[in-house]
Amino acid sequence: MTVPDKPALEGLEAKWMARWDEGRVYAFDRTRPRAQIYAIDTPPPTVSGSLHVGHVFSYTHTDVIARFQRMRGKDVFYPMGWDDNGLPTERRVQNYFGVRCDPSLPYDPSFEPPKSAPKPPISISRPNFIALCAKLTEEDEKAFEALWRYLGLSVDWSMTYATIGRRAQHVSQVSFLRLLAKGLAYQLEAPTLWDIDFRTAVAQAELEDREQPGAYHRIRFGSSSGQPVEIETTRPELIPACVALVAHPDDERYKPLFGTTVDTPLFGVRVPVKPHELADPEKGSGIAMICTFGDLTDVIWWRALSLPVRAIIQANGTLRPLT
After folding, report:
1. 297 CB burial (10 A radius; 0-12, 13-18, 19+)
2. Residues 257, 231: contact at Cβ < 8 Å?
3. Which of 10, 15, 78, 81 is deepest in the core (most CB within 10 A)?
4. Threshold 0.90, pTM exceeds
5. Backbone angles phi, psi at 230, to 5 degrees
6. What is the pLDDT of residues 203-214, one digit of tens each?
7. Could you give the 3-state DSSP secondary structure of residue 105?
8. Which backbone phi and psi does 37 adopt, to 5 degrees?
């Protein structure tokens, strides 16, 4: 072997990627017994159209573990998947093509996306929108795979899957039917984070918290004793959703009110006064209204105190009309 006068790194990636693929170095052997298999189930990355250094760092850790287990003689099950079946994909397609899905429209077999995204976006049928999702994610997935291969991740690329693919859909549906048959799937009225644009529930990870300036408002509730009870809140618009007032069990100011009721201002709805340890005597007037739902604490109080639901915010984000 001749050592070059000036060793260089250029071209090493392409050379070794081809050799690893040809030799099936990282291919998973399904014939190996379970005791000799080390399975890695990584959450598939969201195909968002942009890559950053965080992608590299997160999968570097996983790849170190995969290589270590191979050195120990294990056959490593290490596939790569693409999470392209969710809100980020829909939003990316909307912004990229300048379209919006309208399920009421019929399928247009001759539809072609605009050359540049128009504003406002045009409405297209659900089948046409799904076709654009498949088209764009296919291109994005190529960019993702190219990066992972360039980094030399020891993935078995013959086992790549996508959450929008038919096989993943089938597995998901069968799993749900099994849970349903076992009585583990159920329907329940409960609070959730809701996207008024997509009209669907969203995960906490989809949200970006931003602080907004606000102000405390002192609100007076009527009491059967004749002495009004005053609360302070930054959400006076939720008064019609109030289902109870709450104060700390050791707060001497409000102990006489526990077990009694008060009337909400403007609406005259009678609600109970309850004790709970999460109430802060130092915050505001020391007594708070519980609304369904203003924030996470409202949810905790609602569950702990077995309170009813009085929902006033509709699925489109507007307040429910008074009847």
Report:
1. middle
2. no
3. 78
4. no
5. -105, 135
6. 777 778 888 888
7. coil
8. -110, 135
